[in-house]
């Protein structure tokens, strides 16, 4: 497990940018954290490093937003509204096995539909400042072990 502390939304975005430089087609990133923890801020940084010019917004009401303008397609999912089910009908595996990178917020609501390999990123307020966060990266699988080890350099 790899944890770091950030003190501003800009630092959260920078981590997203660093990871965005390393992602490959078919990568899956799960973002866990309360409302306002920085999940969409992280995704904005990732999108920026992929060269996606759009203003990335939380897909709370659309469930999935697709961005195809960058180095790789970005599939940004917010599955919070699937707490009571319905995810089976979305064809998520087509995204997860696809040509882009999938970022899933609130992944605990689709836990039974997730593949076995992914990078889980937990964002937690640490109380030091309003903008302070502890970000924990937990890789599942060799691909994500490698990605996280590249970040340390």
TrEMBL record:
PANTHER family named in the record: TRNA THREONYLCARBAMOYLADENOSINE BIOSYNTHESIS PROTEIN TSAE
Family assignment from sequence similarity: Belongs to the TsaE family.
Chief subcellular location: cytoplasm
InterPro entries (UniProt xref): P-loop_NTPase, T6A_TsaE
Keywords of the record: ATP-binding, Cytoplasm, Hydrolase, Magnesium, Metal-binding, Nucleotide-binding, tRNA processing
Record GO biological process: tRNA threonylcarbamoyladenosine modification
Any one annotated GO CC term: cytoplasm
Protein's cellular compartments: Cytoplasm
Lineage: Bacteria, Bacillati, Bacillota, Bacilli, Lactobacillales
Pfam family membership, one: TsaE
Native species: Lactiplantibacillus xiangfangensis
UniProt-recorded name of the protein: tRNA threonylcarbamoyladenosine biosynthesis protein TsaE
GO molecular function: ATP binding; hydrolase activity; metal ion binding
């Amino acid at each position: 497990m790899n944890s770091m502390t950030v003190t501003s939304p800009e630092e959260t975005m920078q981590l997203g940018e660093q990871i965005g430089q390393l992602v490959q087609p078919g990568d899956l990133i799960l973002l866990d954290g309360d409302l306002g923890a920085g999940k969409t801020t992280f995704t904005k940084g990732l999108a920026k490093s992929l060269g996606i010019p759009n203003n990335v917004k939380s897909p709370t009401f659309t469930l999935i937003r697709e961005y195809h303008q960058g180095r790789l397609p970005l599939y940004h999912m917010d599955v919070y509204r699937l707490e009571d089910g319905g995810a089976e009908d979305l064809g998520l595996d087509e995204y997860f096995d696809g040509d882009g990178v999938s970022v899933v917020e609130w992944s605990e609501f689709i836990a039974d539909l997730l593949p076995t390999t992914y990078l889980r990123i937990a964002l937690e307020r640490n109380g030091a400042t309003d903008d302070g966060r502890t970000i924990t990266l937990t890789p599942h699988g060799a691909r994500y072990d490698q990605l996280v080890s590249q970040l340390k350099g």
